Amino acid sequence: MNNEVLKAMKTRRSIRKYKPEQITDEQLDAILEAGTYAATGMGKQSPVIVVVQKPELIAKLSKMNAAVMGSSNDPFYGAPTVLIVLADPEIGTYHEDGSLVMGNLMLAAHAVGVDSCWIHRAKEEFESAEGKELLKEWGLPENLVGIGHCILGYRDCEYPEAKERKANYIVRV
């Protein structure tokens, strides 16, 4: 079966080294729109996508994220765009909803020629006093939970090969 969506799913890889060049507004808009079309429990659309392209704010978020790991390395690998997916924990499916948004963002990025990677620790970042202050500054409810960061940019490395799929990935019963 030759389907573009299935092809994108099979060929997308996480990238961990980026050029400083910013993605285009057209690419960003297409990626964001795809994120808004992720399935959500009962159509509640609990996730929120925060777009960060200001280098000083990305640096602040990078430092916060690295601190969660006890590291000083850049967990965003120099990506010029960071999308933060947050969701309302009052919605029973908030974590699943946010995860589906993250998947859509990464697949859409691949489809429009942008590289991506899911970066964890958003939960810990936005549970902190500093994270709560950012939510307040952005006009968002302080109860939102961080699901993940989708970093975006153009890779500055070789494109990774897919690992072989494990033999027992699928069990037919």
From TrEMBL:
<dbReference type="InterPro" id="IPR000415">
    <property type="entry name" value="Nitroreductase-like"/>
</dbReference>
<feature type="domain" description="Nitroreductase">
    <location>
        <begin position="10"/>
        <end position="154"/>
    </location>
</feature>
<protein>
    <submittedName>
        <fullName>Diguanylate cyclase</fullName>
    </submittedName>
</protein>
<keyword id="KW-0560">Oxidoreductase</keyword>
<keyword id="KW-0285">Flavoprotein</keyword>
<keyword id="KW-0288">FMN</keyword>
<comment type="similarity">
    <text>Belongs to the nitroreductase family.</text>
</comment>
<dbReference type="Pfam" id="PF00881">
    <property type="entry name" value="Nitroreductase"/>
</dbReference>
<dbReference type="InterPro" id="IPR029479">
    <property type="entry name" value="Nitroreductase"/>
</dbReference>
<dbReference type="GO" id="GO:0016491">
    <property type="term" value="F:oxidoreductase activity"/>
</dbReference>
